[in-house]
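Because showing beats explaining, we think one record worth quoting, sequence and backbone structure tokens together, and here it is:
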Amino acid sequence: MPVIDFKAKADELLPDGASYDSCLACGLCSSGCPASGLEGMDPRRFIRMAVLGLNEELSNTPWIWTCTQCKRCAHVCPMNIDVSVLVGLARGLWPQEKKPSGIVRSCEAQMRSDSTSAMGVMPEDFVEIVEETLEEIRASDPRFADLQAPVDKEGAHFFINQNSREPAVEPEEMGPLWKVLDYVGADWTYSSSGWAAENFCMFTGDDNAWRAMVEKRVDAINRLGCKVWINTECGHSFYTLWKGVERFGLTANFEPASLVTYYAKWIREGKLPVNSDWNTRGLKFTLQDPCQLIRKSIGDPAADDLRFVVRTLVGEDNFIDMQPNRNANYCCGGGGGFLQAGMNEQRRAYGKRKYDQIIATDASYVMTPCHNCHSQMEDLGHHYGGSYHVVHFWTLICLSLGLLADTERKYLGPELQDI
């Protein structure tokens, strides 16, 4: 296994004029890290070992695959030390055959075609799935006889990406998003290439593969001449694309945006006249802030938009925030490739803090605009015996507008099947 000079790299992370000699070993990084204690490691220990030159130990610890690189350690550190950068460096130098095979396979699947899909959905298959799903929606409800889901539409204002989970295993979940876009009159398109949202190559620590994925997507958006790239309800895809553009010096002739921001904008403008009238039972909802979207990318403005949308949808008195939240929120443990790493025992131990947060709200539903968060919190509920449901924003928006089909209620509980 290659050995890294972690101290030299750690020194590069220090702010101007700072020194590790001034570190009080306060432990804020470790106390706020759900990965603390896994594999006998925590962020403070990782940094101290780096300073002491214990490079071989740090180069070989499997803890780097339990760290989700959520950056909460850097968020609370008085010196702004970002352990996740060291973790990414260590991941990149592990031999490919020793990295968690699930993350590697996901990256390899992305590299196989212009789709950049981690689930291996080819460009022609994606187009066919979109067309077939669209025809089913049109045939099942006359209100959507003219519903559109454009692909490769040049000059469209919005370029929309799509997490591979929908076309691969639950295409009916694409319908609510299309209905929202149709309702507000959005001028949008998919692309037959570079349409996939996820990027597990970034999580392998392989910068060349990360760059290749981002380049394909940026090229697709530039080629169609879209003005705004909207990241769908997927947490890490915003960070991986826009950070990749900055990191690799790519030319992006478009603006990045989150779908959450546009949900809030369209509600404020009256284009999405949603309300909480449907919630006659006073069901309680809480919210998971995706680390990749909030803490690592847009910050409190997006967190504020999330809360505005949720409160409008479910009712002010029916929203219970987790504590802590927003930029300080704990990672759920689904990101950083952890879900794909095959380390289920460690991942669920990591996620226990998030499960406890959810249970403390006594909410029946958790809303989150992130697929990894969605899958992780569902799994935590099943594993630890929780009775909550995890739901996409587009589901409740369409429910409020009376647009949600019976086939689009997979993540709703029995009390919301007939509304």
About this structure: The first strand starts at residue 158 and ends at 160. The mean pLDDT is 95.
